[in-house]
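Ticket #4471: structure export looks truncated?
Reporter: QA, pipeline team
Priority: medium

Steps to reproduce: submit the single chain below to the structure queue and open the exported record.
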Amino acid sequence: MSHPFTVSLVSWHDGEPLLKSIREAVFIREQGVPADLEWDGLDESCRHALALSHSGDAIGCGRMFANGHIGRISVLPQWRKQKAGTAIVEALLDYARAHDYIQVDVDAQTHAVPFYHSFGFVEHGEVFMDAGLPHIKMTLKL
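Actual output as written to the record:
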């Protein structure tokens, strides 16, 4: 099945303006995450997945740390339910497998737990608050 978008792995240096535009729209404006929490200074050390529409618009993104922690998975509202988030996570998981990661983890917003279950992630621990939003740690053995 072809999608109306592509997903590429990029460095922060190469993708910063597009990655920032998505995260500002989703996390800061839509979800009310304070900008000082969103811009944690850790992006330069991460591998980023960037989804672009066929017309070249940035529509979604995510990041992964060298330790296998996945985060900042975000898709613009008009692109949700079109498998962009799935493709972003799959790109990061493919990267992890290609680099012999044993396990990856995510601090999932609780509403996204079923999404991560679809990849085989399993919850660990208790729900906790991050940036005013309920999360739970989830892991996936690769």
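Status: closed, not a bug. The export was complete when the record was re-opened. Leaving a note from the reviewer for reference: The longest strand covers residues 122-130.
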